[in-house]
Specification:
Helix content: 25-40%
Strand content: 15-25%
Strand order of the largest sheet: 4-5-6-7-10-9-8
Number of strands: 13
Number of helices: 12
Order of helices and strands: HEHHEEHHEHHEHEHEHEEEEEHHE
Oligomer: single chain
Distance between the termini: 23 Å
Number of domains: 2
Shape: globular
Radius of gyration: 30 Å
């Protein structure tokens, strides 16, 4: 049985999510200190972090190279990206210190559209463990203009490009967001039309509440060398955009503001590629041996204007504000009982049908034919019966959940005692299984 299957079985028995202790201080007493190893007894933690970072850094796997004439082939993406994680299996002490590094450093590429074989999508993201989602590193969004033009800064809107499940605190806080428009992502690139960028979506990214625990935002724009003047004009316009300053974090018990600030430099590079992009023939490139690309990247860093020395760590999980819980009050329908002219007792709800009752009492309805009054009362009875059935269903669901909770409480205690005796890093969270 796989570890994932075992966890699912335990979650079904206990009605709680299974998690791992990932903090070395919380795990004290449950791992070997490795005091005989110079790695842990001599080197300080800061140097070990550099070792973990270097050993788990992503790289291009040359055994899985991409075709040069595809849409997605470009510098940094000439082959599948890979990370080595064998170091995490050496001992529990190493795992506790370095388990976040592979995800924090990994570059996960999402494509809308014209994707590479190593693409990620929202289904892949949803299948990650809660720990891995908390440790998102470099999210790279390759997006065509039409697929991002409608972006706004509503909560969760930017998040939907990467994760469509219901938001959970801390499940989306990437270290870096990197958005790239390739030459083939601009409008009408096939017919060599002038570059056109409506910058509202860039402004919305800077103001998005989804990004306020992210260290860096990069915008990368690519075009052909003979359009560099057009691109420079767009770049200068984007540089004028200002990020809103919003209260997003709690520091020492007090709300504090954050904003993205443009780094005072722009990065650029050039590269060459074939003219038959994706094995196609394009009239504007007739007679050319190669296409010469020019790429410009703008970078913004998240800052705390009121606390200049504060920052969101690059390789550590950033804290997020504890958002208020959203409660769903149980359905409660107050009922009264009234008698109609035929002396039948019929329950009714407050509201529109309550007004009918008051009209009857005041005499304003007495002029209606008896069949009309009776018809109305029959409709009311049918509605009340439907609501009564719904109440019964809800009551049955409450009884089922109470039974599951009582059954799960016993299993939870058994697993807690077992894991404590084994020194296991497994634990049960407070989150019930849906």
């Amino acid at each position: 049985m796989s570890p994932q299957s075992k966890n699912t079985r335990i979650e079904n028995l206990t009605n709680r999510r299974v998690d791992l202790v990932v903090d070395e201080y919380e795990a004290a007493g449950r791992f070997n200190e490795q005091s005989s190893s110079p790695l842990f007894s001599v080197l300080p933690r800061e140097l070990r972090d550099i070792i973990w970072e270097y050993a788990t850094a992503p790289f291009e796997d040359q055994s899985q190279k991409f075709d040069e004439n595809t849409y997605y082939y470009r510098p940094g993406h000439t082959a599948r990206l890979k990370s080595h994680t064998a170091l995490l299996l050496t001992c529990r002490r190493a795992w506790l210190e370095a388990n976040a590094m592979p995800m924090l450093q990994a570059e996960h590429s999402y494509y809308y559209h014209r994707e590479a074989p190593d693409r990620r999508d929202t289904a892949w993201t949803a299948g990650l463990t809660a720990l891995n989602r908390r440790n998102f590193g470099h999210l790279h969004l390759f997006v065509q203009m039409f697929a991002i033009r409608s972006l706004n800064c509503d909560p969760g809107r930017l998040r939907k490009y990467f994760l469509e499940t219901a938001p959970v605190e801390g499940d989306f806080q990437p270290r870096m967001l990197h958005v790239t428009l390739r030459h083939t992502d601009w409008y009408w690139w096939e017919s060599d039309q002038p570059l056109d960028l409506h910058g509202s979506w860039v402004q919305h990214i800077l103001n998005s509440p989804d990004l306020r625990s992210t260290h860096t935002f990069k915008l990368e724009l690519e075009t052909l060398d003979y359009k560099i003047d057009q691109l420079n004009a767009i770049i200068q316009r984007i540089k004028t955009f200002e990020s809103d300053e919003k209260e997003t974090h709690i520091v020492n018990g007090k709300p504090t503001t954050t904003k993205f600030v443009l780094v005072d430099r722009q990065d650029s590079y050039t590269w060459e590629g074939p003219t038959n992009i994706n094995n196609g023939n394009f009239a504007p490139y007739d007679g050319k041996d190669k296409l010469k690309y020019h790429v410009i990247t703008l970078t913004w860093k998240l800052t705390f204007p009121k606390i200049p020395t504060a920052f969101v760590p690059e390789l550590r999980r950033a804290r997020r504000i504890q958002e208020a819980d959203i409660t769903h009050p149980s359905l409660r329908i107050p009922t009264l009982y009234i008698a109609d002219t035929h002396r039948h007792w019929i329950p009714y709800m407050h509201g529109q049908r309550g007004r009918l009752y008051h009209q009857m009492r005041s005499g304003t309805v007495r002029q209606l034919p008896g069949w009309a009054i009776w018809g109305r009362m029959q409709n009311l009875a049918v509605e009340v019966l439907r609501i009564s059935q719904k109440q019964d269903e809800l009551a049955e669901e409450v009884r089922r959940l109470q039974f599951v909770e009582r059954k799960g409480a016993s299993a939870r205690e058994q697993y807690r005692q077992r894991w404590a005796s084994e020194g296991s890093l497994l634990r049960l969270t407070d989150d019930p299984v849906e």
